[in-house]
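Reviewer 2 asked us to include a model.

Predict the structure of this chain.
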Amino acid sequence: MKLSNNLHYDAMIAAVRVDDPGKLADTIAAHLLVGVDEKQNLLEIISPIERLNRIAGILEIEVDKLQVDRRIQSRVKKQMEKAQKELLPQREDEGDSERARSQGREGQRGR
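Predicted model (structure tokens):
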């Protein structure tokens, strides 16, 4: 739940308050971000326990995807920060060089 911002608070509360395994499976399945085919497959599973097991498998896959996504975002952020740190001194050096050239031109004009 912490990994995804897509889960609504009301959906979490509704799932927690359900005592019947079948209703719990239906409540969770209704909020899964999966295709229609996958939802249809879930509806076709008669046993609530089997349906919950299938949902648990889907959720494990989704958690894995979210963790990979977070790792990628973290790496990209670190690489961007590193590139910015490397680029900033170069820009400062370029600015210093430009100022020196400008001052040199001004000094030559004053003669």
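The chain has a mean pLDDT of 81. The helical segments are 9-16, 21-31, 36-44, 48-109. We have added this to the supplementary material.
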